[in-house]
What does this fold into?
Amino acid sequence: MPKITDFLTELQAQLSTPQGRGIKIKQDPRTIKRFNHDNSYHASRDPAAVISVKTEDNVSLVMRLANKHAVPVIPFAAGSSLEGQTLALDHGIVLDFSDMDKVVEVHVDDLDCVVEPGVGWSELREELKPTGLFFPPDPGAAACIGGMCGTNCSGTLAFRYGTMKDNVLSLRVVLADGTVIKTRNRAVKSSAGYDLTRLFIGSEGTLGLVTQATLRLRRIPTHSTVIIAQFPTLASSAATVQHLVQSGCPFLRLEIIDDLCIKAVNNEIPDPSKKFAELTTIMAECAGTSQDAVNEQLEAFKAACGTIAQNVTMATTEQETDRLWSLRKRAFFMAPSLRHAESEQGKQFSTIVTDVAVPISRLVDILVATRKMVDEARLVSPIVAHAGDGNFHCLMVVDKNDKDEIERAKKVRDDMARLALKMQGTCTGEHGVGLGKIHLLEEELGEGALEVMRRVKKALDPKGILNPGKVFLEKKGSKL
Amino acid sequence: MPKITDFLTELQAQLSTPQGRGIKIKQDPRTIKRFNHDNSYHASRDPAAVISVKTEDNVSLVMRLANKHAVPVIPFAAGSSLEGQTLALDHGIVLDFSDMDKVVEVHVDDLDCVVEPGVGWSELREELKPTGLFFPPDPGAAACIGGMCGTNCSGTLAFRYGTMKDNVLSLRVVLADGTVIKTRNRAVKSSAGYDLTRLFIGSEGTLGLVTQATLRLRRIPTHSTVIIAQFPTLASSAATVQHLVQSGCPFLRLEIIDDLCIKAVNNEIPDPSKKFAELTTIMAECAGTSQDAVNEQLEAFKAACGTIAQNVTMATTEQETDRLWSLRKRAFFMAPSLRHAESEQGKQFSTIVTDVAVPISRLVDILVATRKMVDEARLVSPIVAHAGDGNFHCLMVVDKNDKDEIERAKKVRDDMARLALKMQGTCTGEHGVGLGKIHLLEEELGEGALEVMRRVKKALDPKGILNPGKVFLEKKGSKL
It folds into this structure.
């Protein structure tokens, strides 16, 4: 790989310049291993080097040289992506943003803040707490703003506040050739030319690298209550959510956790009296600027649950709120515990996570069909749903060494996505395309839309060095 | 213009084919005159021809031939744009979408609908009323969905529901060469590849032509009340709005109408007892799913008004609501009445509308500075503000034949925009760039961002036939 050598030599020579100061080049096996995978089931890929950056100037320098030498660059902060977005294909270098983690400005009076891409949303939430403001998107706990822009993520609060697209006002971006641009100013509304902010959001690092993001903040609701209700079937819980969404009631969150998922979370609860009944559960958060607003949502929730629901439980203390939310928060991590007995025998597991979303009226249909597919494929897979948005995840716990099981899981993932497409839904509600859904994206949008994406990519990154091999193939029918 | 002749000849020959059926070619002076201007102060430009289309197939055919002959195509539906977006530069043809005005599907259970670009938002609102749902963006009354996508418009409801970007789920678009694509499916959340929906929204017809839009609908609030309060100064009204926005209270609308604007609207009210006091006025709409929710907002509003506000008036009947809203609705149309005496002398007036938006904490500063600029330039200009979004319009009523006055108005427009940029705001909150703000867009975003837009444009429309000369100049420093 002579181009890598030339690139690294030239970069090395720049480390003492003002633009290069702060850059660290790492090629030791331990660092390579830390940056060769993400949170997904995709096979690890060793980067040729890991370059840590501290400033926008650093990023611009790296990109100028990488472009000159046609070296692929893969952005990385938390590595919490679920579709292989941070894997270093084509012997590229990983650009490590974890040191660009400053909250640059907080404008309390404008309800916005400016942050670097390595800032984690959960740390940001802590830091902002004294201001009474917060940034709504809440994906996996480790996720950082840079990657969150990349995948257009969301989480449990999207039902009220929308996804990253709806919560980022502006970006500073380094392009493939090292040019730095800003996409917008800080006004909450703007029609100033093409919406470059939202062109970069969701582009998974293939069009440019975010070096600063201006985030729209919201006031933390002064009043909120978590309520859960349990249902005899997945279908009856989903039907209840459909009804609640159609009613227009402004819940803060509206989630479904299926019976198997409850079972997994129960595995972590030692005290039998604290375990939850293993039934599919709707978890809602009712919130507003007054207790009246909360009560109104609670009443609507209870009314919709009717007589079918069991164990309607409202959190009355912070401790109880935490206990109820732990159900949702622990789902991803506890899913493998369903195969604990096999782990004891030395088997190793990973989780293949699906991510389809459908128009809300189809939620019952797709959940019922999905449960059937999963069962028929003999897979262990809890289901959690950002039900208010018609979006859900199967957490398919597969034996890393059981090729047949993995193939069955991939088939279910594809079949489920194709069913969602038939319902005019999407193969990815919030995790992005990465490596795992390239074939599905083309089925979803068709060749024409893919060709537009390719042309935009080519226009902004003519050498194809930014996160190559992700989202779509560079040419129709080409293979990775 | 031989290319036009060749294009029209070839198109004419296709009119009896399945793809061409429904197309009408018009070149009579009356039609040319109807389609040679928009709602702005920009000078009219005669198109070479007006082509009326009825189907997506028609649009695709026209584009294929226009691309072949390099004929510029300017999309047109209502012609209600305020920055010259529909003017036929470069001897182009106008593509008239007003016959593509079908509501194709309404999915009540999914809270969305599919419409053609010639559907007007106000007609759509009427049509949807029986379903209990509505589409929030509410720009000028005549505006159609196609143009609304083009400018990423919004209106008085953006404070709660956002702009077009936040309310369009998916588009079908005909590209420069006639290719038809869809940008998304109907799920409310999707991370499926680049966000082409939002690339086309706000591109003012320069990247592709919308032939179908899937719109997100909301439930009409079951309870709502309009309340107004009048203030001794523009500054005190704006300070009150800033405070209300910062409080996070979820008003439906939050508008400011200045004293001069009230005077203009009063000109239309014959009964002196029905006229409004000529004071700057905040108009809020409080709305929700219960009277409690409304009352909470009303109380927050009254508390923020404190003792400074006068004439706090709440609408208790539908008639009173209409009366209060007429203040805002009639502003644009009544502004010229401020120069009625001169009209009587035979002078002709047009209105130059500005459209800056700033971060909310700067609303007082920019409004006060703007009022000073306008007064110092001896202009007659009411101010109306979508205050909750930090967005406002000066309605500068200028004598069409007074070149000096027009120059003064343009200077104020530019000075005001530059002041907004200093405050990290935008030169256009919702009307778009069109012809009138090309120079300001470059100041706002810088050459790097403009170059990205040019590259995207070149990638999707290599011959530059889609609405040429709008949004930005094709080359840096080039003139129209």
